[in-house]
Amino acid sequence: MENKNKTVIKSMAILNLFLTHAKLNLNEVIELLHMPKTSVHRMLTSLEDMQLLDKDEDGYYSLGLLFLQFGQLVAQRLDIRQIALPVMKALRDDVEEAVNLIVKYGKEAMYIEKQDTTQPVRLYTAIGRKSPLYAGDSRIILAYLPEEEVEQYLNEIHLQPIGYGTITDKEKLRLIIEETRRSGYTISRSELENYTSAIAAPIYDHKGHVVAGISVAGLDIRFSEERLPLLVEKVKTAAMDISLKLGYKK
Questions:
Q1: From CA 15, how far away is CA 51, in angstroms rounded?
Q2: Tens-level pLDDT at each residue, the chain (250 residues)
Q3: In angstroms, rounded to a whole number, what is the distance separating the alpha carbons of residues 35 and 47?
Q4: Residue 40: in which H helix or E strand, if any?
């Protein structure tokens, strides 16, 4: 504490008040912090001059627009791939299956990061590979789009079979999407490639929007009914870990 600037510390104490209060006047800040009026007034004025606080005509302070600019920069510079990679590696090492990071790309899904399985037989999933939103682990992205976007997509798309498990019935697909939203994950079997399975869960950003999905994928024989609950829980936990690192609040 001796090496820290006391004025900066006190200023941060004032700014921290606005994490839980939308607006405060001078007397309210004094009452909350138990600091001298002259010190509080001086720091409030300085924070206003630096555009860290705004003051309205009634004398109430609120966070300044500069914080919005900082927030946007932080959000833009958070590289989801860098944030997700350690979690993906840990998940791969734990379950010994391939782990994929998926985002929406136009009217498709794209794999933007992956960790290959430790098993001798591997699935082919290259970074940059695209797949339809309705099939496989990509469906986790479709399930969390706004309802009107989902309906528009389903009205426009022709559900073509890719693997022998690909869902080609739109009503069945709607039911699976509804179940995915309730359960927080989706399971697919032989939808993008025969004799394979995948489990995917959504990743949320700081605004609570689903911005990506994480999945484990492998040979169907390794995704037995007995093992599914464990895999589902681990995928959902990994998705939440990444979400929290992106600023998501439960």
A1: 12
A2: 445 577 788 889 999 998 889 899 999 999 999 989 999 999 999 999 998 999 999 999 999 888 877 776 666 555 888 899 999 999 999 999 999 999 998 889 999 899 988 776 666 677 888 899 999 999 999 999 999 999 999 999 999 999 999 999 999 999 999 999 999 999 999 999 999 999 999 999 988 999 999 999 999 999 999 999 999 999 999 999 999 999 898 7
A3: 16
A4: helix 37-49
Q: Report DSSP state, residue 69.
A: H
Contact 128, 100 (CB under 8 A): no
**Distance between CA atoms of 116 and 134, rounded to whole angstroms?**
23
Instruction: Look up tokens 């829980």; give the residue.
Output: 233
Q: What is the DSSP letter of 136?
A: G
The residue assigned the tokens 């797949």 is 131
Joined tokens for residue 144? 């969390």
CB under 8 Å, gap of 24 or more: what pairs does 109-113 form?
109/133, 109/138, 109/141, 109/142, 109/213, 112/80, 112/81, 112/212, 113/81, 113/84, 113/85, 113/88
Name residue, tokens 């700014």. 15
Residues, the chain, total?
Answer: 250
What is the distance between the alpha carbons of residues 245 and 17, in angstroms, rounded to a whole number? Answer: 23
